[in-house]
Design a protein that fits this description.
- About 65% of the residues lie in helices and about 0% in strands.
- With about 150 residues, it is mostly helical.
- Residues about 10-15 have low confidence and may be disordered.
Length: about 150
Amino acid sequence: MTKVHMSQGAANSWVGDEYSRLLADKVTVMAEKEDAFYSCVDYLGELSPLDNGIDEGWRQKAAEWMFKVIDFYDLDRDIVNVGMAYLDQMFTVSSLHHRMCKQQCHLVTMASLKLAIKLCEPRTMNMNDMIKLGAKLGGHFPHAAIVEMENEM
């Protein structure tokens, strides 16, 4: 846990001791929440390579696919960072990666990128294009499956 240090401050300080204590308490609570709710779990480290084929190589392939899609549509490459954050968060906060097959993980990858594009890009991406590009990743999914995964995320 992060420790918070308070300085005593000058006696003529406009902030005052009461405010300093309140501020220190708020920062302490925020640090505790960060440790409890926003900690990162190494979901790849929890898996053996034989579980479902999800490993560092698979994650790299997912990122490369996202970059190809983004570059093809001439979108901001930072969208891939957001998409990968969604993908990692989806596998970290849920234990989906333990019970998903590789095909379902492709669906999470597609939905992560679609969601990142929706949130970061003013232009929209045609869902049929996303389905065709997803086939190159290794998944054939109907429109409804991608939308359902987006909603779950």
